[in-house]
Amino acid sequence: MRLSTVRLLSALVVVALSAIVYRQVIVPGPLLLWNSITEVIYGLALSYVPGFLVYVLTMVLPEVRQKQRLRPYLHRTVATVYGDAEHTLGELAKATKLEATRERVADILAAVSPRGASTDLQGIGTPAMATWIDFLRRRAEKTRHTIGEVFRFLPYLDAELVRLLVDIDHCFYVSHVTRPPIMPGNQNLSYLAKGYASYLEAAERLKAYVHKNFGETMTDHRP
Fold it and tell me: Where would I find the H helices in the chain?
């Protein structure tokens, strides 16, 4: 529930309690001029306060408890999303012996061949290495799967977190490399540079959100 909604409901409770106190304590008995108005306000107040208490007990408190239970899971799982971005960049940079920074993305991708052997095995039980385009596809698919897992709890998610995850899930880079596998004719991966840089930027925004709202104890996740 939004904080503004809680504040509004709390203000209405204060008004309702004030009306009850005014009617029962300060000015007991019927009033000649304001009798009809005070009776209406008094009746509304008597019905609103119990209803508000029922709402808090049956809706607000369970939601708060569920959010608290989900907090460690969300912390760990969302950290995986930007952790995959950092890991992918680190592996590409290691292969090219360049610095793993967003500023060097164009240079890193220009030095990597889509058909070149990556740092991931092609499959279990085989010594062959997957190509770089397969490596990127697997990581992007894993990222999308993780985001889908988080979205199972959409009613309990903060709107900003949802927006940040959608930015990653729908970005050009993730959408492109998760299409049906096609071996590109390019000699290197520089055609992905702009989209990949935007993907890393979105991952950095997500990381900043996690540090701000969850703390930093679990955010240096590596797959």
Answer: 3-21, 35-55, 61-96, 105-110, 132-150, 159-169, 172-177, 193-214
